[in-house]
Structure formats: C-alpha cells, structure tokens
Design goal:
The protein is mainly alpha-helical and about 210 residues long. It has 9 helices and no strands. It has one domain. Helix 1 packs across helix 4 and helix 6 runs antiparallel to helix 7.
C-alpha cells in the first residue's frame, strides 16, 4: 500500500473518530435532559402512575420517552472509555431497563418489573463507576457517588417505601454526570487537530529537519 493511500486512510479514520465524539457528546447532553425530565415525573402522581389501562395516550408517550432516554445512551457507552465487561454491563442495563419501563406502563405487577430494574441498576452502577474512575475529578466523584447510591438503593428498595429517598441523590446527579460526560467528549473533539492541518505540520517539521 502506497504512502498516499495510508495517509488517506488515516484522514478517514480521524474524521470518523471526530464524528463519533461529536455524536456521543450530543447523545450525552440528550441523556442528561431526558433523565432530568424523567426525574420530574416521580413527583407528579398522575404521570408517575399512568398505565395503558388508565391513560393510553399518556402511558404511550411516557413509554416512548423512556425508550428514547435509554437509546441515546448507547453511543455514550460505545465512545466513553471503559473495560469491555463494563460496556457489556451497560448494554444489558439499557435493554432490560427499557423493558421494565414498558412493563410498568403496561400495568404489570410492581413485584415483577421492580425486581428486574433493581437488579440491572447494579450493572449500571458498575459501568458508571468504571467509566468515571480514570477521568477528571468532577466526573469521577459524581460518577462514583451515583454508582454507590444506585447500588445501595438496589439493596434497600424493597425494605421500605421511604427507600426512594436513598435513590434521590443519584437521580438528581445522574443528569449532571451525563452533562459532564457530554462536555468531556465535546472538549476532546474540539481539541483534535484537523487531519489536513496535522499533515501540514508534520510536513513542515520534516522540511525543517532536512534543512538542518
């Protein structure tokens, strides 16, 4: 393969990576917004307790938003550095959590969907903690706190109705965490050199080296 073709491949790969970072940043911002909106529904009984039997249109809208809320996280999981097992855990969490939302709006017994949700919350905690730990202090502290709070809630949720208060801090901070992750990914994309500019700088450096 000629050097020219290799350069073209590098340029294409760099552009693809830049596009992936941009898409993941927007996805993280979208997740922050959607999870924040979802948090508000917990404090509005008419919305929180809606099912297809009581209000089909409202439950359908909420189910759609719940699915979108999870779908936008997939690009974030794919892009944000984390061990492979943590990424797998995140994907399982997203798929199963979407299913539990649909079961909830479908009027399925809380004893069924809540147990599933609490179990996969532990997988979410593993991903958030492992992805947050190597990054900046703000993301690390918020992420690890959210992960620990998720895990604690999963163990105490069935013991008392007041256990929701345990989960409240993480529900508030999860959108904050996604917002910080979005800013991180956008920052990384912004500071990537344009491929043509990078090649030009390398050529200039080589030329200066030869002149010496």
């Amino acid at each position: 393969m000629t050097p020219c073709k290799l350069d073209m491949m590098r340029v294409c790969m760099q552009k693809s990576t830049s596009s992936q970072l941009t898409g993941a940043a927007y996805a993280a911002y979208s997740a922050a917004l959607l999870f924040a909106l979802h948090l508000l529904t917990y404090f509005i009984p008419v919305i929180r307790d809606a099912t297809f039997a009581t209000s089909a249109s409202l439950a359908g809208t909420l189910a759609f938003l719940a699915v979108v809320q999870h779908l936008v996280v997939f690009p974030v999981v794919a892009t944000l550095p984390a061990p492979r097992w943590a990424k797998v855990a995140a994907y399982v969490w997203l798929v199963v959590d979407m299913c539990t939302d649909i079961l909830q709006f479908g009027g399925v017994s809380k004893a069924i969907y809540l147990v599933l949700r609490l179990a996969v919350n532990l997988l979410a905690a593993l991903w958030i903690a492992s992805a947050s730990w190597p990054i900046s202090r703000a993301i690390r502290y918020v992420g690890v706190f959210v992960a620990l709070d998720f895990a604690c809630y999963s163990f105490v949720a069935l013991l008392s109705p007041l256990s929701f208060l345990v989960a409240l801090p993480s529900l508030v901070l999860l959108p904050v965490w996604f917002g910080l992750v979005g800013r991180l990914l956008a920052h990384r994309e912004k500071h990537r050199l344009d491929p043509a500019e990078k090649s030009s700088r390398q050529a200039t450096a080589l030329g200066q080296g030869k002149d010496r």
